[in-house]
Amino acid sequence: MVVRMRRNHSQTAKRRSHHALIGAQLATCECGTLRVSHRACPQCGKYNGRVVIDVVARAKRDQRRTQRKQKELRASGQSTETKEKEEAKA
Ligand SMILES: [Zn+2]
């Protein structure tokens, strides 16, 4: 690197002055839980006062998926330890 291109401490500090992280801006849903603004509420599935996500159906589907995965793991003969780890992840 040529000396002309070298960044001094002041220039580095000025660049990094914009690197601070800020917390997520959360809004309160009508159901009372915090949610990310301009996103549907994961708790009640509402956006802008109307239901856009069928929360009950989603929960049932997720439950069915986890049951099927566990069944496949048991069928493949993997140990119970790996199953428990998968459950802990989910
Ligand atoms: Zn909600």
UniProtKB/TrEMBL annotation:
Positions of region (Disordered): 60-90
GO MF annotations in UniProt: structural constituent of ribosome
InterPro entries: Ribosomal_bL32, Ribosomal_bL32_bact, Ribosomal_zn-bd
Record's compositionally biased regions (Basic and acidic residues): 81-90
SUPFAM superfamilies in UniProt: Zn-binding ribosomal proteins
GO biological-process terms attached to the record: translation
Alphabetical keyword list: Ribonucleoprotein, Ribosomal protein
GO CC, any one term: large ribosomal subunit
One matching Pfam family: Ribosomal_L32p
PANTHER family noted in UniProt: 50S RIBOSOMAL PROTEIN L32, LARGE RIBOSOMAL SUBUNIT PROTEIN BL32
Family membership noted in the UniProt record: Belongs to the bacterial ribosomal protein bL32 family.
Protein name, UniProt field: Large ribosomal subunit protein bL32
Organism: Candidatus Kaiserbacteria bacterium RIFCSPHIGHO2_01_FULL_54_36
Gene: rpmF
